[in-house]
Amino acid sequence: ASRQGRLGVHQDAGETYDSKNLRTKLVLLGDSGVGKSCIVLRFVRGQFDPSSKVTVGASFLSQTIALQDSTTVKFEIWDTAGQERYASLAPLYYRGAAAAVVVYDITSPDSFQKAQFWVKELQKHGSPGIIMALVGNKADLHESREVASEDAQAYAETNGMFFIETSAKTADNVNQLFEEIAKRLPRGQPTQKP
Ligand code: GDP
Q1: Is the pTM of this model over 0.90?
Q2: Residue of 28, 34, 37, 38 best suited for mutating to test ligand 1, as the one with most atoms within 8 Å of CB
């Protein structure tokens, strides 16, 4: 089941979380236009539908996945929905996030530069131990590629992130991105207090 809510009004009363059923706040960061909303909609709804994005204010969608060890992870995915142009997001956006996904567009060196800015922001404002992923999206546009995978991989390694290239359009690696994050979440305690 997926659900959409506005910043700050979401309540989850009555649900319980234990070491087998994790709940995780995940924040998306990256330049406008790199495909953040499309990645989320691909993951949550299984479709590529650029027209259905939320355009004003932060929003989130949730999606639960099951891992092979019978753990379930419920992601509460926060999308900046246009707020990224203000360069610095409210601390509320980062608060309690166990995972952050920094997205750039493989055809845009500018968006890769901007991703590095967001990584620094996360290092300043994110929770200690936050799991960070660097995502090169629009991998289907490889003929127009301007950011080498090797450069992004090297940057990710230096910053303790994992790196993956995705295409929200073809669905390539989108589920894998979230599975990789799920596998890295700390076990044995809820990742976020209910
Ligand atoms: P956001 O501003 O980061 O949320 O970006 P959007 O999700 O709104 O996507 C911006 C534009 O990029 C839209 O026109 C999408 O159609 C396009 N887009 C998003 N993901 C992909 C992708 O994987 N491949 C291609 N070719 N286009 C994409």
Answers
A1: no
A2: 38
